[in-house]
Amino acid sequence: MSDIVPEIVEDFFGVYLLYCINPRYKGRTYIGYTRDPNRRIMQHNRGTWAGGAHRTNNKGPWKMVMIVHGFPNNISALRFEWAWQNPTKTIRLQHLNLKKVPRKESEFKFKLRVLSEMLRVGPWFRLPLIIRWLETEYIEEFPPERKPPDHMTIVQGPVKSRNLKRKLLNTTFTEECLLCSNYINIGQAKTTCLNPSCELLAHITCLADLFLVPGEYVPIEGNCPFCSTKLKWGDIIRKMKGCAQPGEEVIGEECAEEECLEEECITEEDKADEYPSWFLDCNDDL
Ligand SMILES: [Zn+2]
Ligand SMILES: [Zn+2]
User: Fold this and answer.
1) Is residue 46 classed exposed, middle or buried when 0-12, 13-18 and 19+ CB atoms within 10 A define those classes?
2) Which runs of consecutive H residues, i.e. helices, occur in 53-100?
3) Domain named GIY-YIG: which ranges (predicted)?
């Protein structure tokens, strides 16, 4: 489809499905979030050094088969991504008990079934989403009883994102926040995941936005949007400040509580570049 002119979409927030075409891992899938699908698929197929996700490294080539876009912001898209990856932990999907049918259903078909259910429940059924097939040979029709709402569109063909970069205050930068896709300027507080093999790198404010529950001013905890590790906000702050890590094992800890994934819970996007005082002191009782 490389001869087709890609459709240009501004303010792009997408959640994509990768399909592995490496014979050794054929049929494996991966769900991810991106603001630039064309760059992201190249990263997945190149490996860690190019910013690829740990789980896709050395298993390529991968094909980005489809992408859902039209989310109003990164938080909305990241919550969609998490729910698609974790249907049994997602409150809005729990009653459906979505599990892959052993031997009868491929991973790919299962992911599409989960998607078809997600698009028909709140908060997502209200969003003006576009379901875009990027690889025509993988197109599957939604079954009549699980069609997306009429206001959503199903399209095929390549897409190119055009996102306005925030004006740079400082010309020296090397890193990019994986949540908002803006550069992380010198002096801006950034964070990584507590899971050492996770590639998460983000502005601390972007992660705080993701973890904030309405009515609260300080995040408590949340799941890493890339590896699903449960992260306690206090530990994140301590790590960012270079303070000693608590002895407890965070990696692989079973998530007992459901984080709030409801669309209504999204807080106003943090537009400021200033940081509130709550994350500057790691001795604070967070
Ligand atoms: Zn950011
Ligand atoms: Zn992580």
Assistant:
1) middle
2) 74-85, 91-94
3) 11-98
Return the CATH number at 214: 3.30.40.10
Confidence at residue 18, expressed as pLDDT on a 0 to 100 scale:
95
Q: pLDDT at position 142, please? A: 95
90 and 189 part of one domain: no
Report the separation in Å between the CA atom of 110 and the middle of ligand 1, taken as the mean of its atom positions.
32
Q: Which ligand ends up closest to the CA of 273?
A: 1
CB 283 within 8 A of CB 244: no
- Best-predicted range by mean pLDDT among 32-36, 170-174, 241-245? 32-36
Higher pLDDT, 194 or 172: 194
* Closest C-alpha among 80, 96, 99 to residue 17: 80
pLDDT band at 99 (very low <50, low <70, confident <90, very high): confident
In a domain, 63, yes or no: yes
Range of the domain at 242: 173-279
Q: Which ligand is nearest to the CA of 178?
A: 1
Looking at the structure, tell me whether residues 149 and 60 fall in a common domain: yes
Instruction: Quote the CA–CA distance of 86 and 105 in Å, as a whole number.
Output: 17
Q: Say whether both 34 and 124 belong to one domain.
A: yes
Clarify whether residues 17 and 127 are in a common domain: yes
Q: For residue 129, how far is its CA from the centre of ligand 2 (angstroms)?
A: 26
12 and 153 in a single domain? The answer is: yes
C-alpha 97, offset from chain centre: 22
Global pTM value: 0.66
**Statement: residue 260 has pLDDT above 50:** no
Residue 285 domain flag: no
Domain match, 155 and 199 both: no
Distance, CA 184 to ligand 1 centroid (Å)? 7
Closest CA to 202 of 223, 174, 229, 183: 183
For 53-67, 120-134, 267-281, which range has the lowest pLDDT when averaged over its residues?
267-281
